[in-house]
């Protein structure tokens, strides 16, 4: 007589932090809407694109879970026809081939866990995974047991190739997130040795390019703080080659944006981003950004506008750059602690003030307006920190700005600047002009 395990299963689920599968994803679709409409639309659209890429490599019943989520996202994006088409989809894939791919996926997943456990020096855990694999050796014995065998399997060789490279690309992402850049690059190289066609294995090229850019940026930050030598610009050249291959077969928003970043770094000095060394590369970056803007959610990405503003700023187009930074700041989430956009905008408006010395009223008005907006969007301490940084790195310019503000009776911004460089008590007890000690 069979026993009813319903209660046990329900109690088990209640104790879980999340239900296995895609159901633990924080999609926030059935909750009350929060945040600006354009940002909610952007986030939903980006989730849809991410799942669409995942669907290309999912096998077995997992693909139905992904399709269900894609249908749900399409519905929330006001795409009812597309949602209906997705929900009506029926697969014709042979169950035997699907089962073979599932087993290969399990086998390679166990291999990944062994590598991760070993890399963290948890050999006990690694041997546990090996034990699991050995217990299921009868099931695994009917499928190819090596990458080489997968490639020359009598049935479905391309499918096996795709599964193996998918796992390797996933492993590269995990290793990259752990900060092991050399190891992640090596895994990308393995995936590309197996399947070098950029149309079928574009993710490996993108991942390798991203690693090279991140390594370059890390080297750049260390060099700026006197902790290393000049960053390797060859990293940028290698990343550009990889993305060139991807763009020939799969042009998309992300790739164009990453290519623009590469061209930007190729166009500026290796240590001082305020110095342009190759105008052609900066122009290429702007072209890549223009191509990225042709994709639907691009205009709502603050990073894109910040990068475009930086390119325009280094070309001497301060006002156009300021407009880009303003647009990026409008797209920041309220309460954000990342004030990179504010930093760029303040610096640009200060430059405009210096350039328009004969009639600086426009630059001053913009500064007052956007400092007020910044205080509504970012935590107060973050805004003060940026103003303090502006004063410390551009003391002469800020001093001249303060003199002009006092002379024209616009004391609100002066007070904010004063509070960043003097104790609060000092600002309260002394008259504003004397406290600032301007000559």
TrEMBL record:
Which residue ranges does UniProt annotate as crossing the membrane? Answer: none
Q: State the InterPro entries in the record.
A: TPR-like_helical_dom_sf, TPR_rpt, TTC22
Q: What is this protein called?
A: Tetratricopeptide repeat domain 22
Source taxonomy lineage? Eukaryota, Metazoa, Chordata, Craniata, Vertebrata
């Amino acid at each position: 007589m069979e026993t009813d395990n319903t209660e046990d299963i329900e109690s088990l689920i209640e104790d879980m932090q999340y239900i296995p599968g895609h159901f633990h994803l924080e999609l926030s679709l059935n909750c009350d809407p929060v945040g600006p409409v354009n940002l909610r639309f952007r986030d939903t659209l980006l989730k849809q694109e991410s799942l669409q890429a995942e669907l290309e490599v999912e096998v077995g019943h997992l693909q139905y879970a992904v399709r269900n989520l894609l249908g749900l996202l399409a519905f929330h994006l006001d795409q009812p026809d597309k949602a209906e088409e997705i929900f009506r989809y029926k697969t014709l894939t042979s169950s035997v081939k699907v089962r073979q791919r599932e087993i290969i996926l399990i086998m390679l997943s166990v291999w990944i866990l062994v590598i991760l456990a070993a890399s963290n020096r948890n050999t006990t855990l690694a041997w546990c995974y090996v034990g699991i694999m050995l217990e299921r050796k009868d099931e695994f014995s009917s499928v190819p047991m090596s990458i080489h065998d997968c490639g020359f399997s009598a049935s479905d060789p391309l499918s096996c190739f795709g599964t193996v490279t998918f796992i390797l690309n996933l492993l590269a992402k995990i290793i990259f997130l752990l900060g092991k850049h050399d190891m992640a690059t090596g895994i990308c190289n393995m995936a590309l040795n197996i399947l070098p066609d950029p149309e079928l294995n574009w993710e490996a090229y993108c991942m390798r390019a991203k690693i090279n850019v991140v390594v370059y940026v890390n080297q750049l930050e260390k060099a700026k703080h006197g902790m290393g030598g000049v960053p390797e610009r060859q990293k940028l050249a290698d990343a550009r080659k990889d993305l060139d291959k991807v763009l020939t077969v799969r042009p998309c928003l992300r790739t164009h944006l990453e290519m623009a970043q590469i061209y930007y770094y190729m166009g500026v000095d290796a240590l001082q981003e305020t110095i342009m060394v190759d105008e052609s590369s900066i122009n290429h970056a702007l072209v890549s950004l223009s191509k990225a803007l042709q994709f639907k959610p691009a205009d709502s990405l603050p990073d894109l506008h910040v990068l475009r503003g930086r390119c325009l700023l280094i070309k001497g187009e301060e006002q156009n750059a300021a407009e880009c930074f303003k647009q990026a700041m409008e797209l920041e989430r309220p309460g954000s602690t990342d004030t990179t956009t504010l930093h760029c905008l303040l610096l640009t408006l200060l430059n405009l003030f210096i350039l328009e010395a004969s009639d600086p009223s426009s630059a001053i008005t913009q500064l007052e307006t956007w400092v007020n907006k910044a205080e509504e969007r970012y935590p107060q301490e973050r805004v003060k920190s940026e103003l303090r940084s502006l004063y410390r790195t551009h003391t002469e310019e800020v001093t001249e700005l303060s003199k002009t503000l006092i002379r024209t009776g616009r004391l609100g911004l002066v007070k904010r600047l004063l509070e960043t460089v003097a104790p609060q008590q000092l600002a309260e007890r002394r008259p504003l002009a004397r406290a600032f000690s301007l000559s």
